[in-house]
Every structure is written in structure tokens, then in C-alpha cells.
Amino acid sequence: MQISNNAVVQFHYTLSDTSGELESSNGSTPLLYMHGQQQMLPKLEAALEGKAAGDTVELTLAPEDAYGEVKQNAIQSVQVKYLHGAKKWKPGMKAWIQTDEGQRQVTVVKVGMFKADIDVNHPLAGKTLTFKVDILNVRPATSEEIAHGHAHGEGGHQH
């Protein structure tokens, strides 16, 4: 089966920038996504269209096609209690905060007793990124997955 709208794709990936490998899913549970549901960077999803199990896709994206350029005025002050991911915070650490659009990863810039300055740029903003995606399996989405708008099962969303 080829990747098309409402296909559930199981894959491993490696993500690199110009300095080398940043992260990889190899050695862990493969990931799942449902194609056509805007769950991935648009140009990466477009590159996967029409591919099948056993294919490998390698794609380099400029910052504007990945996580955007770094915005210089993206520092905000928040109460430390709203930072999730650690008990004690230091500058440079990654944290999660809840926003109106869901959880968002931020970088801690400065920490006080009750407040922290955070950089709301995506941690990969401003970087040229290379994705290597190894497609392991492609299957039709179930009617339940289509109704929910995402893949179910190990590596996907669990209910």
C-alpha cells in the first residue's frame, strides 16, 4: 500500500542539523501517524506521499519549511509553577507549558524564585534540518482512527 490520505504509517526517523544527529527513534518503538491529518511538517508529509513500506525518504528543510526562523522578541515571563518537566530549573533547560493551542516546548532563559523568563521559539527554530524516515508499514486507517483524526496503537495515540 502506498502512503495517501488516511493511511497509517509506521516509521523510524533520524533528525540531523549541520552539526550532526540531534535525535533518532531507532532502538525504540516505531512511531505512527495518519497521513493527511496535518500531524507533521507539511513538506515532510508531502515527501512521504506515494511511498510504501521499505522505502526511505531523506529530506533537508530550510528553517522556513521546518520550525521557522528565530524570533528575537520571543522572551516571556511566566510563573515557575507553570513549567513542566523538572523540579529545579536552570537556564538552557527545556520545559513544557500549557497554552491555548496545547502544550508547547520552551527554553528556560533565566530563573528567579517565583518567575522564569522563557524563550518561546521552538528549540529547532532557525535550523536547517535533515530528516531520514524509514517507512516500516503502511495500512488503511480504521473507522475509529479516522473519526478521531489520529493513529491508534503502540507508537501512536493511546486511549
From TrEMBL:
Keyword annotations of the record: Chaperone, Cytoplasm, Isomerase, Rotamase
Start and end residues of each PPIase FKBP-type domain: 6-69
Protein name, as recorded: Peptidyl-prolyl cis-trans isomerase
Major subcellular location class: cytoplasm
Function: Also involved in hydrogenase metallocenter assembly, probably by participating in the nickel insertion step. This function in hydrogenase biosynthesis requires chaperone activity and the presence of the metal-binding domain, but not PPIase activity.
Catalytic activity line of the entry: [protein]-peptidylproline (omega=180) = [protein]-peptidylproline (omega=0)
Cited InterPro entries: PPIase_FKBP_dom
Matches recorded under Pfam families: FKBP_C (PF00254)
Lineage: superkingdom: Bacteria
Protein's cellular compartments: Cytoplasm
Family to which the UniProt record says this protein belongs: Belongs to the FKBP-type PPIase family.
Organism per entry: Arsukibacterium indicum
EC numbers, comma separated: 5.2.1.8
